[in-house]
Amino acid sequence: MRAQFVLSEIGVGLRRNLTMTFAVIVSVALSLALFGGSLLMRDQVSTMKGFWYDKVNVSIFLCNKADAEQDPKCAKGAVTNEQKEQVKTDLQKMPVVDKVEYESADEAYKHYKEQFGDSPLSSSLTPDQMQESYRIKLKDPEKYQVVATAFSGRDGVQSVQDQKGILENLFGLLNGMNWAALAVMALMLVVALMLIVNTVRVSAFSRRRETGIMRLVGASSFYIQAPFIMEAAVAGLIGGAFACGMLLVGRYFIIDHGLALSEKLNLINFIGWDAVLAKLPLVLAISLLMPALAAFFALRKYLKV
User: Fold this and answer.
1) Distance (Å, whole) CA 231 – CA 292
2) H or E segment at 167?
3) 105 with 130: CB under 8 angstroms?
């Protein structure tokens, strides 16, 4: 009976300030949805980095006759067989190297024709203009600089390129978007906290007669504050539930259906449902504790007990 009475009183308290309660629920829902989305974006970026960094190679391009005439790095002439063998031997001795593959000029020309056969430049290229290269798979993609330092400037080597660098701009953009979402989330949390404090303040003012009577009969400070704290916590929890719903719906329509990015972008390894479900308890816990704490500290100022 007591639990039913407490719940009914919480319902009455929320309805008394229905507009502000609705604003609290919406602001908490939006801010926590952004918070959960930011966490998922961070997981997505980490997943993409692990997926792509594991596939990228370091390429050592060797000098050809055309480079010897045009590129100062190849001023000593095209790469010789001895230089190629020395590069391969040194690569295989390096502990950071996992696998070494050689690509001849003919193979490079064939791959170019397969990928860019429709390009106007393809008809003017010949196999002897293509560069021989070594494609190196590293045990740790972050160790690229070790290979670059060892082979850059060596006779017969035109350049050392890290494919990971191509992805850095993409990941930089994604991280920038994530920070922007966190900034908006922080702003929404501030708005939500201000609304919670104002709601509690108005509720305490409208019930000052009741609280005065409770003080006269000897009610403790916590007993007087508890209904206001519980009202704020319930409103926040409702907002948190909506935030969880938005995360689930967003994952369903953006990745699986609707936009169906998982089908359109097959090269991206998207996060699974387990990552989304793992964030929901955290979102609900914050939605419950944040309004309760905000109400508690607000009552210390506005409710003299």
Assistant:
1) 8
2) helix 164-206
3) yes
Q: Mean of the per-residue pLDDT values for the chain?
A: 79
Q: Integer distance in angstroms from the first to the last C-alpha of the chain?
A: 27
CA–CA distance from 108 to each of 6, 8, 170 (Å)?
76, 76, 26
The pLDDT of residue 76 is 83
- pLDDT-wise least confident of 47-51, 108-112, 232-236: 47-51
The whole-model pTM stands at 0.66
Q: Provide the Cα torsion 40, 46, 47, 50; round to 10°.
A: 180
Question: Can you list the pairs that 101-107 forms with residues at least 24 positions away whose Cβ atoms lie under 8 Å?
Answer: 101/134, 101/135, 101/136, 101/137, 102/132, 102/133, 102/134, 102/135, 103/132, 103/133, 103/134, 103/135, 104/132, 105/64, 105/130, 105/131, 105/132, 106/130
257-265 contact pairs (CB < 8 A, 24+)? none
Rg, the chain, Cα only: 32
